[in-house]
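Issue 218. Parser rejects a valid record. Input:
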Amino acid sequence: MPYPRAYNATTDMVDAHIAAGRGDKPAFVDPGETLSYAGLAERTNRVANLFRTYGIARLEAASRRGNTIGAISYGSIASILKHGLDKAFATEPAPDTPPIRHGNIRGSGYFH
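Output the parser choked on:
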């Protein structure tokens, strides 16, 4: 059975517009700013680089810390990661507990 490609919203919603020559057109409009497709792609790549450098768990923890203290810019999140200030906001690993058994939870055998 063929599987679809891994979905990347940036490819479909940003890169396709840039490839079609619309990189300078507005992609995001907000009362505070307007970003072109090229500008949105640049910001997306910066966040992707943080993900590659620090991993998703640390990036999410840094984002939680940034939201808590009102420091939500790229520079603030990068600084939180660089200085290890995200570690206090890391989530605890899920306990190793058995799965929930309930009549309304069908399990993998239900699906074909």
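Fixed in the parser; the record now loads. The longest helix spans residues 37-54.
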